[in-house]
Structure formats: C-alpha cells, structure tokens
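Q: Here's a chain of 130 amino acids. Please give me its 3D structure as tokens.
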Amino acid sequence: MGGLYEDALRVEYWKVVSDDDMHIAMVKVNGELGVAEGVGPVHAIDRALRSIASRLFPPELNNVRLTDYRVILPGEVKSTESVVRVLMEFSDGKVSWRTVGVSTSIITASVEALVDGLNYILMIYNYKGK
C-alpha cells in the first residue's frame, strides 16, 4: 500500500550537456521523453520538463513561473566540495510556494527543487478538482 501522496511527475532520467553557451537537456518523465535547449542547464531542464508536462497535465501548469532562485552553501565548510541547498519560489498568479533541493551538485539540487515545485502545484490542482 502506498502513501497518501504520489508524485505526478516521476523523473526516470535526466541529463544535461553544456558546451560554451549551449545547454541541452534530455529528461524522461512518466515514460515520456523531452528534449530542450536553454540559456543555462537549469533552464534547459525546466523547458524539457514542461514540454512533457504540457502533454500530460492541465494547461494551468503553463501559468507557473519561477519567481526566485537561490543557492546556499550551508555549514561551515564553503568550498567546491560543499553540499548546496537550492531554494526555489514559484507562483501561478494566485498562490506562491517554495521548494528546496539539496545535493553536492548544484544541478541535481536544482532539479530536485524544480520537480518538487511542479509536483506540489499538480497536487494542489488535483485537490481542487482541476
């Protein structure tokens, strides 16, 4: 028996390739593959995730915007081997919410926070019957 909540966006795989000013992300979510280019690696992943989400979920997801993005190095050791905490704030024009991702990789922490943010609002939309 499962828990009370199951992620709507289940990321099976993601990969980013960056070369100078080109960043391409490939993401597999719920068995669907999405590929996108962005101005940075996180932007590319966001675009790839949304390309899949727009096919699978309600159009209200298109209203969701990232309104704040912060990277924090918690703890006393601040070096390239530090664990990073990424804080993201989102809004759909009606409500705002925040998520956190933690990893030794800034990209992985960003993906965690981004996916959690999209999953959160999908849970809310389902709860409201949309």
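Q: Can you summarize the key feature?
A: The radius of gyration is 15 Å.
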